[in-house]
Amino acid sequence: MALRLGLQRALRASAASRRVVTRSLSSFQHAADKFVVEFPEEHDGLNIEFNWSLADDDVTPHGDAYRNLQWAKLAEFAKDAKPAGKAVKVQEVDVEVAFAEYEAVFEKVTGYLSQQKNLFAQDGAVGSFKDNRTRVRVISDSPVVALFAQNLLVRVPTKDPHAARPIVVYVASEGEFKGQEPKAYLLLDKNEDDEVFVKVVVTGAADLNSVKDAIALAKKKLSEQTDAESLVLPGDVLLKADKSALVFNASGATRAQNINAGSLYAAHGNIWSAAGLTSLFGGAVVDAGKVQKKQVVATEAGAAVHVPCNNLVDAPKAAFFVTKSSGVKPISAEQASELLKKVDAGVDAEKFAALLKQADTKAFTVGSEADIDAALAKL
Fold it and tell me: Which domain of life does this protein belong to (predicted)?
């Protein structure tokens, strides 16, 4: 009996002790309890996940950062802008320019972009076929550049802002860079996982076509390292009566006509692989006022429009080089490869000749783009 009472007293004392401790703990306020994190409400210019992804690109936005903003809203930002840049040649780091020079410019540009009141980014891709596709992010202080990228890039799902993007392009054309002599740098490197990536930096008064050309060069350099079987080519692709054709030196006026006729599959670039031809871009630059499209971006030399494209088309039946010669003249694969080097001195001309022979693609020179339809119909 005494033992039982003793145990009961001990249990009651223990319970009382626990109540005192509990009350003491509940009344004690730790310094950390006073530290409260309040996240601001998200809106078009503030998405926390997107901002974290920008940090991975060395940009830490202090103002609003817009990602793939709707056309109408971007157009409102750009309503008073008039493109007035000029062409600039991209310099390859460690080939044409020292890494130290690039690094200084890169740090200056990313720091500048981080401080902008409004920052614009467009996520898309080059390569309409999934096996040849590379994601691209364009980050700029200019809504016009964002509109241009929106029309130019292949449109892909963008739910995940952290999705791998082997090509990142930085464009700084306003503020301290406004009116400066344009410069463009391209760095090809590998990350800690041994994955190849390309960073392009464009500064000053560069025209929009130079941004396009820089993206195409980035894809070309990347493919040379990661996709030895395919070849990035600087030409258009026409699709007429189920026949595809390569066209080199196409004009903006004829390109607009082909868009209106629904026969332009690819403009400014394509990728030729064993599977067929892939459109490099999802848009085209054409002569202003000659294309039947609503969402048009004025450029220094014309207008940029979105051109929806299929994933893939068959290997070309013909390759046409628009030259100053008259009429339609057949040429050999070797002659075609020499003409291609005049379009792009850095292209793998031998691989191009081999692809022509492998696909039994006929090559021609034409004095006028008007001759192409008739020549293609005969094949």
Answer: Eukaryota
CA distance to 118, 233, 269, 319, per residue, from 247 (Å): 40, 10, 10, 6
End-to-end CA distance of the chain: 112
Q: Which of 148, 127, 139, 135 is nearest to 169 (CA)?
A: 139
Integer CA distances (angstroms), 197 to 100, 192, 218, 239, 249, in order:
18, 11, 9, 32, 29
Whether residue 325 contacts residue 364, with contact meaning beta carbons closer than 8 Å, is answered with: no
Count of residues for the chain? 379
Token pair belonging to 157: 């799902």
39-44: long-range pairs with CB below 8 Å, 24+: 44/69, 44/73
Dihedral sign from CA coordinates of 213, 214, 215, 216: positive
Alpha-carbon distance 128 to 178, whole Å?
Answer: 34
The ranges of the chain with pLDDT < 50 are 1-28, 32
pLDDT digits (tens, 9 = 90+) for 264-314: 999 999 999 999 999 999 999 999 888 888 899 999 989 999 998 888 999
Give the max Cα distance, the chain.
Answer: 122
Q: What share of the chain is helix, strand, coil (3-state, %, to 5)?
A: 35, 25, 35
Cα 267 from chain centre = 15
Tokens of 366: 């034409």
Spatial distance between the Cα atoms of 207 and 195, rounded to a whole number of angstroms = 31
The candidate with the shortest Cα–Cα distance to 126, out of 166, 74, 80, 68, is: 166
Residue 371 has what DSSP assignment? G
Let me know the angle formed at the C-alpha of 190 by 188 and 194, rounded to the nearest 5 degrees: 150
**Model pLDDT, residue 43:** 76
